[in-house]
Write a sequence for this structure.
């Protein structure tokens, strides 16, 4: 074989190798393009599912778009079991013994109950429609996947009789709880703040939990309160929220109206919309009242916001244990501690101050009550408290004539005693 033949063979092999590499690169690029196109298509499909046709749209001062959607077109009715559901426009029964919030407001002039949301400044939705916070493409893209958008990360819940039931690595709580009986609802008036969040993937919330079943893979939970969650909403505003699950946050449930389930009947209040005003240190204190209860006749779980707004209901068929009753009620705060740079987060819970600082500085829950089997609201018996690290976030209970059973809670997170 002469040099020319040898050289020609090498050239052909080099050319073949180059073509092979080019093909692999092309295939890889095509796959990436296909993945990108598929993601865009999935995101758009999800946006189309969530954003129903609007009768009118209202631009909120905080940048939100609130769509006024006909009540029969809301996301709840994407559920196969709700295709022929007749909307129940009011509960058959309210719990007896609702605490008179007006009496408290009259006695304590520096406190008021804000049922205003920022979008109200620019309009309202008409009767027969419900306000729905419009989901944007960026909202979904902040989630780890289209499927994960609007859902809590799956929890690994230990089967334990202790109240740290819903704790998993990275989540911390300061809660008051009651168990050992059958419960048919809960109520609380919750002080509203705007806690600082250190990392976008962290959140801070204050809520009540209505829990049923064991704390394994079949936990039922209905949750409502306020939260600051940059990941979910794209900002640091304090927002009204709800959540539900019937399988310990695995595949069912979501925040607000981001899946089918909760049926809203109210045209005034938008789930996930900003609450205004919020409390300030040594300044005016603002709170919201939330009541969740089980209608004794239909069995649905209803939610009321403030004294005037019955928002809607979770149909009983969504749940297994809660189709009957709850076995535990919790009230309090929760944060995500992602341990940035190997240290405890400085994400605040409540006002970011410890309970012992008291009114005007520490955040509170007041007039906490449960609903019993006779549909009566009453003071809870045998309250317990729980926090993972009291040097980071803590809780202190009390009771008096005006506030009934109450507690202060929260904290700054990272501090010299919480490294």
């Amino acid at each position: 074989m002469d040099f020319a033949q040898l050289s020609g063979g090498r050239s052909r092999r080099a050319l073949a190798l180059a073509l092979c590499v080019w093909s692999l690169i092309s295939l890889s690029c095509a796959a990436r393009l296909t993945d990108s196109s598929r993601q865009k298509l999935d995101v758009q499909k999800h946006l189309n599912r969530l954003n129903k046709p609007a009768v009118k749209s209202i631009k909120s001062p905080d940048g939100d778009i609130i769509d006024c959607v006909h009540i029969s077109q809301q996301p709840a009715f994407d559920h196969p079991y709700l295709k022929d559901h007749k909307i129940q426009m009011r509960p058959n029964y309210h719990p007896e013994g609702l605490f008179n919030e007006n009496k408290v407001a009259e006695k304590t002039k520096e406190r008021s109950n804000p049922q205003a949301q920022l979008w109200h400044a620019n309009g309202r939705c008409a009767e027969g429609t419900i306000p729905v916070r419009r989901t944007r493409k960026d909202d979904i893209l902040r989630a780890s996947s289209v499927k994960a958008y609007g859902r809590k990360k799956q929890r690994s819940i230990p089967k334990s009789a202790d109240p740290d039931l819903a704790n998993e690595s990275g989540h911390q709580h300061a809660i008051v709880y009651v168990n050992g009986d059958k419960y048919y609802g809960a109520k609380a008036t919750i002080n509203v703040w705007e806690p600082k969040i250190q990392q976008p993937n962290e959140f801070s919330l204050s809520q009540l939990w209505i829990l049923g079943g064991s704390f394994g893979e079949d936990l039922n939970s209905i949750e409502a309160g306020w939260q600051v969650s940059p990941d979910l909403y794209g900002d640091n505003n304090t927002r009204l929220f709800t959540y539900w699950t019937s399988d310990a946050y695995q595949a069912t449930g979501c925040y607000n109206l981001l899946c089918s389930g909760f049926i809203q009947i109210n045209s005034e209040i938008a789930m996930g919309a900003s609450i205004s005003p919020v409390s300030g240190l040594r300044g005016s204190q603002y709170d919201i009242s939330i009541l969740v209860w089980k209608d004794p006749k239909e069995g649905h779980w209803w939610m009321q916001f403030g004294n005037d707004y019955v928002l809607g209901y979770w149909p009983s068929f969504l749940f297994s244990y809660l189709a009957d009753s709850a076995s535990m009620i919790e009230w309090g705060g929760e944060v995500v501690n992602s341990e940035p740079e190997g240290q405890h987060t400085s994400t605040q819970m409540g006002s970011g101050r410890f309970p012992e600082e008291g009114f005007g500085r520490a955040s509170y829950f007041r007039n906490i009550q449960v609903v019993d089997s006779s549909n009566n609201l009453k003071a809870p018996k045998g309250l317990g408290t729980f926090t993972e690290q009291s040097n980071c976030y803590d809780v202190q209970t009390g009771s008096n004539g005006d506030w009934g059973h109450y507690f202060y809670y929260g904290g700054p997170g990272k501090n010299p005693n919480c490294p």
In short: The helical segments are 3-50, 101-107, 137-142, 230-233. The first strand starts at residue 54 and ends at 59.
